[in-house]
Amino acid sequence: RSAAQLRAAHEDCRLADGTRIEVVANLGGEADIPEALARGAEGCGLLRSEFLFLDRVTAPSEDVQHATYQRIADGLQGRPLIIRTLDAGADKQLPYLDLPHEENPALGLRGVRVGLWRPELLRAQFRAILRVRPPGQCRIMLPMIALLEEIRAARALFEEVRQELGHTDPVQLGIMVEVPSAALMATTLAAEADFFSIGSNDLTQYALAMDRVNPLLARQLDGLHPAVLRLIAMTCEGASRHARWVGVCGGIASVPRAAPVLVGLGVTELSATAAAIPAVKALLRGLTREDCVRVAQQALAQDSAEAVHRLLAQTWPEA
Ligand code: PEP
Ligand code: MG
Fold first, then answer.
1. Ligand 1 neighbour 127 (Cβ under 6 A)
2. Does the predicted model carry a pTM greater than 0.95?
3. Which of 2, 103, 195, 292 has the highest local Cβ count within 10 Å?
4. Which ligand 1 atom sits nearest the alpha carbon of residue 202?
C-alpha cells in the first residue's frame, strides 16, 4: 500500500471532485530538497531562511543569500518556492543583531519586527530573493505580522527594492498568519497581502497563551483546538473577500487527518514535512470539497482539542 501511495504522491493533488489543493514541503535548507521531491512535494511552501543566519558572527551578504536561494530554486526544478524572510528573535538569537535583553522575547522584537527595526537586513534579503531567476518562481512571506502598519512598511521597502533593481515581473508578497490579531483582522490585511500562510505553531501558542517550548504544556498545546480552528476559519473568510489564497505551514499541515478540516475551512495549500506528504495527498484524494466542509463544520462545533481528535479518529480510523 505504501509503495502505491508513494507512486501516487508524485501526481499533483486534487480532491475527488477535481478541486486543486497544492501539497508542498517545508524546507530548512538545501539538504532537505531531495527527500521533499522523493515524497512528492509540489514545491516549497516555507523555506525557513534562518539557516543562513545562524552560527555566524556577521549577517550573510546579499550575494551569499542570493547564491543559496538560486541553488534552492534550481533544486526545485521550476516548482514554486516561498521564502520566509528572517524570523529571528525569541528562541532564535543572533549575536550580530544586538537585540536588547527582553523580559518576554516571544512577545518582543521578533519576526518582521526585527526586519523593520534593522531595515538594511530586510532590504538585502528582498534584493537577494528578487535576483533569483526565473523571476516568477519565488514568492516572499513575512513572519509574525500583527499589525497593518507592519505589512505596509515592509511592502514600501519591497517596492523600493523592486524599483532599484528595475524588477517589473509580479512577485507575490504574502504574510504569515500566526498572531491572533492577524486572524481577527484578516479582511483588512488581505487588502495588502497577496496571500496568507497560517503558522499554526505560533498561532496556537498565542491563542492559548502557552509557550510552545515549555514541555509542561506540550500536551495541551494543540493546533486542532477549536479556538485555533475558529481563527483559521476567520483567516479564510477574510482572504476570500479579496480573492487571496490561504495555506498552512505549521505543524498541523503535517497531520493527515487535519488536512480535510483545513481544506474544509478554505485552505488550498498545505506545506508539510516531506514524510507526511504521501499520506496527506492520499486522504484528500478520496474526498470532495463538500466532505471536507462537513467535517470542518463538525470540528468547529467541538468543545476541546481532544474532542476534535476523537471526531477525526472516528471518521478516518485508518489514516
Ligand atoms: C509556525 O509558527 O507555525 C511556523 C510555521 O513558523 P515557525 O515554526 O518557524 O515559527
Ligand atoms: Mg512561527
1. no
2. yes
3. 292
4. 2
Q: Of 67, 74, 79, give the one whose Cα is nearest residue 127.
A: 67
Our answer on whether the CB atom of 178 is closer than 6 Å to any ligand 1 atom is yes
Question: Which of left, alpha, beta for 144 (phi over 0: left; psi -120 to 50: alpha)?
Answer: left
Q: Copy the grid coordinates of residue 278.
A: 504521501
Residue 74 Rama label (left phi>0; alpha psi -120 to 50; beta): alpha
Alpha helices in 166-225 (DSSP H): 180-184, 186-190, 200-208
Helix (H, G, I), strand (E, B) or coil at 121: helix
With beta carbons less than 8 A apart as the criterion, state whether 116 and 122 touch.
yes
Q: Using one digit for the tens of pLDDT, what is the confidence trace for 178-190? A: 999 999 999 999 9
How far is the C-alpha of 115 from the C-alpha of 103, rounded, in Å? 20
What is the distance between the alpha carbons of residues 199 and 220, in angstroms, rounded to a whole number?
17
Q: Give, to the nearest 10 degrees, the angle between helix 226-241 and helix 289-300.
A: 130
Residue of 116, 117, 111 whose CA lies nearest to 155: 116
Q: Whose CA is nearest to atom 6 of ligand 1?
A: 199
Among 146, 156, 148, 76, CA closest to 113: 146
Distance 87 CA to ligand 2 centre (A): 8
Cell of 162: 523592486
Q: Per-residue pLDDT for 1 more than 70?
A: no
Measured in Å, residue 199 CA sits from the centre of ligand 2 at 5
Residue type present at position 267: V
| Residue whose entry in the numeric block shows the C-alpha cell 477574510 | 238
82-108: average pLDDT:
88
